[in-house]
Amino acid sequence: MKKLIRKGKVKEVYEIGPEELEFHFTDNISVFDKVVPNEIPRKGETLCKTAAYWFKKTEELGFNTHFIDITENDKMKVESVDVIEDYDEIDEETTNYLIPLEFIARYFVAGSLHDRIENGDVDYEELGFDEKPSYGDRLPEPYFEVTTKLEEYDRKLEKKEALSIAGLTEREFKEIKETVLEIDNVIKENVEKNGLLHVDGKKEFAMNEDGFGTADEDRFWEKDEYEKGEFVQKSKEFVRQYYKEAGYYEELMEAREKDKKEPPIPPLPEDIVEKTSELYINLMSRLTEGTYGDEK
To answer: Domain span at residue 110?
Structure first.
């Protein structure tokens, strides 16, 4: 008998056996830690199938994953790990647990990295640039950073705190970073063949297991358009940009900075819902090299 044990913004986790879980990828979409009032048709299916494809690719590289099988279009069966929210209960002896961190690798100046460079919070010279970069510039070297995973809002961490709260050694942290870059190299080669650029992405790991790699977790641009100086978003960034252009993002950030009540996120117009659904469906086919296409 299935038992709901965790409900996130876009994913539900069910216990289906002593050591097995079922992930249900819903059609919800969240941006800026807010769940949008609309559902995006078939979004859950695209994330489930794309994640399954990349779990298999990761296993081909020789890494273990918790993936077992797809059970329905928007559901997959995985091996269970413990989710420990109290950092004090994690140390270097803890095993079989979700590492409470998100590991982010960035390859272009985009998203929050661009904002932080503009605000002076990130020194562009430390990124390897001789002068201030523009939006969309390729980074001289991948920029690797870590945030919290289980807190209400993702919080950027220095390595010392990340190691402390996650019970990781320096060697384990280094191995995770190397794994992220190796997987991303395969993603880069795969998507560029299909006319996309892998801009950045985040990944999650459990002790002895790992996981990631979809339109929700990674940012993609159209390669041909990028070469013409245009940035055509092929990820959840498309929805983020809508809310930025509509003025909601600025209103939300102002409320957070002033510790005021946050404004509720308005629903998406129907045409944006339709375009977002089409984006996810199209991207599923391109990210999986046609393994999962636009079948109904």
So the answer is: 3-287
The rounded distance, in Å, linking the Cα atoms of 31 and 252 is: 11
d(CA 110, CA 126) in angstroms, rounded, equals 16
Backbone angles phi, psi at 143, to 5 degrees: -105, 115
Assess if residue 294 is contained within a domain: no
Work out how many domains the chain is built from and give that number.
1
In a domain, 204, yes or no: yes
Any idea what the CATH number is for the domain that residue 261 is in?
A: 3.30.470.20
pLDDT score of 143 more than 90: yes
Q: Model-level pTM? A: 0.86
List C-alpha distances in Å: 24 to 70, 78, 204, 254: 10, 11, 17, 34
Q: What is the per-residue pLDDT across 207-254, written as a single tens digit (0 to 9) for each?
A: 764 444 445 578 899 999 999 999 888 889 899 999 999 999 999 999
Strands (E), the chain: 3-7, 11-17, 20-25, 28-31, 34-39, 67-72, 75-79, 101-108, 138-148, 156-157, 196-206, 209-211, 218-222
